[in-house]
Structures are given as structure tokens and as C-alpha cells.
Design a protein that fits this description.
alpha/beta, ABC transporter transmembrane region fold, 4 domains, binds adenosine-5'-triphosphate, ATP binding, AAA+_ATPase, mitochondrion, transit peptide
């Protein structure tokens, strides 16, 4: 089971992997298993290339086209990189299953629903693009007319007075075309950007909304980085691909067709000769292009590897500093970055060679066109203007073909990015955020009952955490749950919060099945959760407390802070309630953070308070202050306390001792002490002294 979580890792990465995974509840037993498994498993990075075969094939055609066009601008496609997760992330974060790209399908219907409100803008953009393309086809011919006039007067010195007159019309037409071309270029780019930004905004907000409403089990499996990537890189990729396809694609195709027709009209002879060179160039270009793409992919993967190391070191800077690991991290990063540099140098060499070869070929082609054209010119089969128009049309076709080759990459990138985004947008959670019975607040007593509850985490269905668990927490009472690590204490809180649903049995609040109640109402109005690691947002203390009840007044916030024993220390800050707490509350001490979190939970005046090891991360001094705050907060509420330090729960009405998901002892502190069973043993472990009695 753990093997499933930690496949594809090797021992060398184990140390680092462990540190990455540590914030994600790596229990001791799992780590041991994990280590054993890592030792036996070799790294496998080649798999990730499979999914990109299709893309690669299409890209090859793309490169071929680019070369056939003769512009020879080599384009590196990173779509494989986008599709393929880096090896380092496979190794380090193999415990997180990403949704398979294979399952991701591009939802055309949904895409159209985003596009539909902008249909007029889209039509305008398409029209603008077509007009620009048609103008681009006309410009070489018009330029040819201008050249013809120039050629005519270059040999006729006597007639130079008529030059301006003859030049007037073609030059004027050309100016008009240039102005129109610029105007419509601005127009369609602006239109497309308007559509792109609007569609991207809608996709982004829908995606974020969908992610936020997913079951907690979903987050157990997904990597945060992966989700953030969907919101940023994928949407960005999709947006730019969309714009490129409409503008570049439409323009390029029209220009190729139009200019090809122009070429044939100007000189079928020369067109035929030009076409003869194309197949061999396509073959050579495809071959070199595919080699360069491979190097590019390897280099990109290597860069990702180096980035992952930097990312990890920077986000865990305190651990790095505490272990004085700066030099090692530096060295690790340098090694990976150096390897990336080597690949990039190889790539640079290849691109240089490719570019040099293409330039040579291009110039050769221009020269042979001039050679051939010159001959036709000398035999009066072609005018100077026609030759110029021919050259310009060839250039336009080359540029358009190069653009299309780039577009193949864009299409693949855009479709795969879009598919992934739609996959997440369309994902329906099992548990809805809203919907269900809402009880009148004044009638809530806060009586909780677990009846025959059985539960396994969705990610580990074979490991039963609770087996036919029964517990009654009467209204207004304080019940403490104790037991050694990994016995399922926090799971009980998670079930009450409905982060997960039970597999069997039911949990009730005042006799109502939790599953029948509106989950958001339950979490927002009935339950107040304070956990071991309070997470604050990087804003002011005021806003952090108000997170508990967004419509609370400043006075209510202060009231809650007073109840949480936080008011005095907050007032002691120069900016008082407007003090910025820093990222994740870094600028506050552990005890202060916890009291802000308590105030936040109390602001909603919950009937049931859930304290999941709320003081266990604190030193004795802070623990006392927070404990006092909690005791004060507990008055008049039903409280479920989970505690490691037994000294903090001695006054609880009932203490429940949990062992392997079952209740093994239950009673008051005195009763359990006298039993000399599990509770007594736990006490003994903590004090290394058997408790008196
Ligand atoms: N999100 C999760 N996905 C899968 N398994 C989990 C998850 N959270 C906890 N577990 C597993 O469930 C079991 C019970 O965990 P739980 O956190 O409830 O124990 P606990 O008694 O609160 O432990 P501790 O006192 O160390 O916090 C453990 O074996 C743990 O590894």
C-alpha cells in the first residue's frame, strides 16, 4: 500500500524526498516501509515520454513544413516538457497521484460555452485576420508594379518628369495597403487578446472554484504544485495557443494559398523548379529537427530538476539554515544546473548549425531564383516587377509555413493544457459543499454521537482506521481522546468536520445524521476547529480573525480576541490589529499564532469546539496561556479535545483512550488512573514515573 505511494524513488533521493513529504503526514511506520521500498526500486524516467509520441509525430511534420517554407527558423517545442513531469518530481513526489493525462479530454462543448459570449469579437478577429492575410498576398504584386515603374525610368533618363506621375497610383495603392494592414493587425490582435483574456479569466475562476470544492481526499492525492500549475501555466498555455491558432493559423493558411496562386500566375516555370527542392529539404529538416527536439527536451527536464531543488531549498529555508545545509544545497543545485548547461550548450551548437545550414540554403534559393528570374527577365519572359513580386511571395510563403510549423506545437500544447484544465473543472466532488438541512442556530445543543462508525482513508482503503467506533459526547461536556500516535484521534475530528464520510455507521449532531446537514453551514456555524499547526494567512491580525466570520464587526473581532487571551499581546504591537502576520503567520510566536487561531474559531460562536492537539506545539509557558484561553473558550460549549500531553485534559468530563481505532478505556482522569491500564501506561510514558495512586 505504501509502495503504491512511493514508487519510482531511489535511495539517493530518499533523504530529500523524506523532507518534502514530511509536511504530508509521513507516519513512522510508513517511512520505514517507504525506505525499504526505495532501496529496491530503481529510477524510471523514460516512461513519461510515452504520452508524447503523438505530439512528437505531429511536430516532426511541423518542422518539415517549416523547412519546406524555407524560412528555416527552427522552433523548439516544449510541449513534451509540458506533458512530461520531470524526473525529479516523479522521484520525490511519487506519493501524489496526478490525474492521468490520458483521462483528460478536451471538452469542446465547455470551451464553446466560454467562447460563445464573445462570438462577435471572434468573428471580428477572424475577419481582421483574413483581411491582413489578403493584403499580405496583394502587397508583393503591388510592390512589383512599383518596381516596374522604377525599372522603366532607370533606363529612360529623358522621361524622368513622368516618373512621379506613373509612380503615383501604385505608390498610393501600396501606402493604403500598408496602412490598412497595420490597422487590421492592431484590430485583430486587440480583439483576440480581449477574447483570450476573458476566456482565461472564466476558466481560471471556474477552475479555482472547482478545486476549492473538491473533497479533502482529492487533496490527499494531488500535489499543490500541480494544482497551481493548472491555474497558471496551463491556462496561460491554452490562452496563447488559442490566440496563435486563430491569428497565425488563419493568416498563414490564407497567405500560403494566395501567394502560391500568385507564384503560379507570375511564373509557372519558376514555381515548378522551386517545388523540386522541397522534398529533400523536408527530409533533412525533419531529421535534424527531431534530434534538436530531443536535446531540447532533455535540457528542459534538467532545468526542471534544478528548479525543483532550488524551489525546495527556498521554501524550506529554515530547515536548510537550521541544519547548516546551505553548501550542500548549493552543490546539489550547481550540479544539476551545470548538467542543464551542458545540454543547453549542445542545443545551442545544434541550433547554430541548423540555422547556418538553413541560411545557406535560403540564400542559395534566393540566388537561384534571381539566376533563373534574371534569365527570364533578359529574354523578356518576366518583368523586373514580377521577379520582385515572386521573391516577396516566396518569402511570405516561407514565413507562413514556419508559422504553421510553430502552430502544430501550439495546437498540441493548447489542447493538452486545455484538456487538463477542463478535466479539473469538470470534476465533481463526492461531497457537496452546500445543500442539506440547516438547523436553527438557537436550537443547537451540540450533542454528538458516533454509532458503529467504520472508516478507512480513500487513499488507503485497506487500512481500517476506525472499527465500529461508538462514542457519545453530551451537550456542554468536554470529552478528551487520548492514545498513542497513529491511532485515529485526528481522524475522529476529520470525520466530524466531514472532511471525509464514514464507510459504515453514522455520526449525529443533536440526533441528525451529519450527512443530512449542510456541510458549509455545519463547518461555518456549529463547529470550531483549532488544530496543532494554526495556519494564518499573510494579512493583518484583524483579517485573520475575521476569517472566522467575514461579516463580523471590529468590536466582535476584539471580543473574540479577548476571549482567546490574545487582545493584550495584539494591542502591544505598534499596528495592533493591523499588524501583518507574514506568510503563514511567520511573524508571530507559536503561542500568539495559536491564540489568533482560537479567536478566529470563537468568532463564529461555535456550539462544538474541536481541539486537535491545540497546545502540543507550544512550550510550557505558551501552553499555559493558550490552555487558559481554551478553558475560557470551552465554557458553555461541547468540546472534543485531542491531546498528547495528558496534563492538559485531566479536567475533562470523560477521557476516552483509543487504541487501534477502538475505545479501550473510558472514564474520568481519576477512574482511569486507578484502572492501571492503557491510560496509566500513557501517563507513565510521559512522566517516566507511574502516576500516584
Ligand atoms: N489523509 C490521510 N490519508 C491516508 N491515511 C491517513 C491520512 N491521515 C492519517 N492517515 C492514517 O490514519 C491513521 C490514523 O491517523 P490519525 O492522524 O487519525 O492518528 P492520530 O491518533 O491523530 O495520530 P497523532 O497522535 O500522531 O496525530 C494513521 O495510520 C495515518 O497514517
Amino acid at each position: 500500500m505504501n509502495a503504491l505511494l512511493f514508487h519510482n524513488c531511489n535511495l539517493r533521493n530518499f533523504g530529500r524526498l523524506k523532507s518534502v513529504l514530511s509536511p504530508y503526514r509521513t507516519k513512522n511506520s510508513n517511512l520505514l516501509h517507504f525506505k525499504r521500498h526505495c532501496t529496491n526500486t530503481s529510477t524510471n524516467s523514460s516512461k513519461c515520454l510515452d504520452s508524447t509520441k503523438g505530439a512528437s509525430l505531429i511536430q516532426k511534420i511541423g518542422i518539415g513544413l517549416s523547412i519546406s517554407g524555407g524560412l528555416f527558423s527552427f522552433s523548439l517545442y516544449n510541449n513534451n516538457v509540458v506533458l512530461c513531469k520531470s524526473r525529479i518530481s516523479q522521484n520525490r513526489l511519487a506519493g501524489y497521484r496526478t490525474m492521468s493525462d490520458k483521462d483528460a479530454k478536451f471538452d469542446w462543448q465547455k470551451f464553446w460555452s466560454y467562447l460563445e459570449p464573445h462570438t462577435w469579437y471572434l468573428l471580428a478577429a477572424i475577419l481582421g485576420t483574413l483581411i491582413v492575410a489578403i493584403l499580405n498576398i496583394q502587397i508583393p504584386r503591388m510592390m512589383g508594379e512599383v518596381i516596374n515603374v522604377v525599372a522603366k525610368y532607370s533606363n529612360d533618363l529623358a522621361g524622368h518628369n513622368k516618373f512621379f506621375q506613373d509612380m503615383k497610383i501604385p505608390a498610393f495603392k501600396l501606402i493604403i495597403m500598408y496602412i490598412a494592414q497595420s490597422t487590421f493587425t492592431f484590430f485583430y490582435i486587440f480583439m483576440l487578446s480581449k477574447i483570450g483574456e476573458n476566456v482565461a479569466l472564466k476558466m481560471r475562476t471556474d477552475l479555482f472554484n472547482s478545486i476549492l470544492k473538491q473533497d479533502i481526499a482529492f487533496f490527499d492525492e494531488q500535489r499543490t504544485g500541480e494544482l497551481v500549475n493548472r491555474l497558471t501555466a496551463d491556462i496561460q498555455d491554452f490562452k496563447s495557443s488559442f490566440k496563435q491558432i486563430i491569428s497565425g493559423g488563419l493568416r498563414a493558411v490564407t497567405q500560403i494559398l494566395g501567394c502560391a496562386a500568385s507564384l503560379i500566375i507570375i511564373s509557372p516555370h519558376m514555381t515548378f523548379i522551386t517545388l523540386l527542392c522541397v522534398p529533400s529539404v523536408i527530409a533533412a529538416g525533419t531529421f535534424i529537427g527531431s534530434k534538436l527536439r530531443n536535446t531540447s527536451r532533455t535540457a528542459q527536464n534538467q532545468i526542471e530538476k534544478a528548479t525543483a531543488i532550488a524551489d525546495e531549498a527556498i521554501s524550506n529555508i529554515r530547515t536548510v539554515r537550521a541544519f547548516a545545509m546551505e553548501d550542500q544545497e548549493n552543490e546539489l543545485f550547481r550540479k544539476e544546473a551545470e548538467t542543464a548547461m551542458v545540454y543547453n550548450e549542445q542545443l545551442g551548437f545544434g541550433i547554430g548549425l541548423f540555422q547556418a545550414g538553413t541560411n545557406l540554403f535560403l540564400n542559395g534559393m534566393v540566388l537561384s531564383t534571381l539566376y533563373m528570374g534574371g534569365y527570364l527577365l533578359s529574354t523578356n519572359q518576366l518583368s523586373a516587377g514580377d521577379l520582385m513580386a515572386y521573391l516577396m511571395a516566396t518569402q511570405t510563403i516561407q514565413r507562413s509555413l514556419a508559422q504553421i510549423s510553430l502552430l502544430f506545437g501550439s495546437v498540441i500544447r493548447g489542447l493538452s493544457a486545455g484538456s487538463r484544465v477542463f478535466q479539473y473543472i469538470n470534476l465533481e466532488p463526492n461531497m457537496r459543499l452546500r445543500g442539506g438541512v440547516v438547523l436553527p442556530t438557537e436550537e443547537i445543543k451540540g450533542e454528538i454521537q458516533f454509532k458503529n462508525v467504520t472508516f478507512s482513508y480513500p487513499t488507503r482503503p485497506d487500512q481500517k482506521i476506525l472499527h465500529k467506533f461508538n462514542l457519545m459526547i453530551s451537550s456542554g461536556k468536554t470529552v478528551a481522546i487520548v492514545g498513542s500516535s497513529g491511532n485515529g484521534k485526528s481522524t475522529i475530528v476529520a470525520l466530524l468536520e466531514r472532511f471525509y464520510d464514514t464507510d459504515g455507521g453514522i455520526i449525529t449532531l443533536d440526533g441528525h445524521d451529519l450527512k443530512s446537514l449542510d456541510p458549509s453551514w455545519l463547518r461555518g456555524n456549529v463547529l470550531g476547529l483549532i488544530s496543532q499547526e494554526p495556519v494564518l494567512f499573510g494579512t493583518t491580525i484583524l483579517e485573520n480573525i475575521r476569517y472566522g466570520k467575514p461579516d463580523a464587526s471590529d468590536e466582535q473581532v476584539e471580543e473574540a480576541a479577548k476571549l482567546a487571551n490574545a487582545h493584550n499581546f495584539i494591542k502591544g504591537f505598534p499596528d495592533a490589529y493591523n499588524t501583518i502576520v507574514g506568510e503563514r503567520g511567520i511573524a508571530l510566536s507559536g503561542g500568539q499564532k495559536q491564540r489568533v487561531a482560537i479567536a478566529r474559531a470563537l468568532l463564529k460562536n461555535p456550539s462544538v469546539l474541536l481541539l486537535d492537539e491545540a497546545t502540543s506545539a507550544l512550550d510550557t509557558e505558551s501552553e499555559k496561556v493558550v490552555q487558559t484561553a481554551l478553558e475560557q473558550a470551552a465554557k458553555g460549549r461541547t468540546v472534543l479535545v485531542i491531546a498528547h500531553r495528558l496534563s492538559t485534559i485531566q479536567n475533562a468530563d470523560i477521557i476516552v483512550v483509543l487504541h487501534k481505532g477502538r475505545i479501550v478505556e473510558m472514564g474520568t482522569h481519576e477512574e482511569l488512573k486507578n484502572l492501571k491500564g492503557y491510560y496509566w501506561a500513557l501517563n507513565f510514558q510521559q512522566h517516566e514515573d507511574p502516576p500516584a495512586g
